[in-house]
Amino acid sequence: MTAAALPVDVVELDGPEARSLLAAHNHSVDVDTRAILVSGPPQSIELARTVIRLLATPDASGPSFESVVASLTPPVIVSRGRVLQARLHAQRRQQLIEEFGLLSAADIAANVGSTASNVAATATRWAKMGLIFAVETDGRNLGYPGFQFAPESPKPLPIIQDVLELLGSRLKSWSLATWFTSNAGRLDDQRPVDLLQSDPDAVIDYARHYLHDQAW
User: What is the pTM of this model?
Assistant: First the structure.
């Protein structure tokens, strides 16, 4: 996960402004003195102070390069269990993509023969209507699992909307995709995705039981 940037604002002062500011803090000034004013949260100010000191005193008396790098690196501790769990999730996502594919918004527009200038219009509209759902592919782009569409039709399977009405408030994105593609005891160890067309009623019944179990 990428660390969020720290908010900081830097203003350069020269002439009377710089001399007045530094004199107020008992710093010696001359006619060419300039100053930089840094504003932001405490962490931002501390990092700025460390970097400036390093630049000003590059000898052994100043902070080392490694200390600056350490101060700019947020402490992140990831357990082995979390790493293995993340690897398992990544493998399952890749298997889903390989088995069913991910459609882009442009793919959906082409499949329905849309001539709209905005190629995302159809997919966005269907998603807002609760007819389909998307998963994030790289933190920015969206992909639509291919099992939501019948092979013989570019339109979403009606069962997808029924499931989203039941589970859409609890499961999102990859969690929802995983629900569709995980074996379920209530379905005789079959996956909901395997029954979307052959036995949609069983999928709805399983979704209701899943919702009830989660409530407890």
Answer: 0.61
Please state the rounded mean pLDDT for residues 123-138: 92
The CA distances from residue 169 to 24, 30, 142, 176, in Å, are 57, 65, 19, 10
Measured CA to CA, the distance from residue 184 to residue 194 in angstroms comes to 11
**Among 56-65, 101-110, 144-153, 186-195, which stretch is predicted with the lowest mean pLDDT?**
56-65
> Which range, 73-77, 159-163, 167-171, 212-216, is most confident?
159-163
Contact 109, 123 (CB under 8 A): yes
Task: Tell me the C-alpha to C-alpha distance, in Å, between residue 20 and each of 9, 14, 29, 45, 127.
Answer: 20, 10, 9, 21, 59
Q: How far apart, in whole angstroms, are the C-alpha atoms of residue 163 and residue 130?
A: 10
209 vs 213: CA distance, rounded Å = 6
In terms of C-beta density within 10 A (0-12 exposed, 13-18 middle, 19 or more buried), how is residue 214 classed? Answer: exposed
Section 82-90 average pLDDT: 81
CA–CA gap between residue 163 and residue 156 (Å, rounded): 12
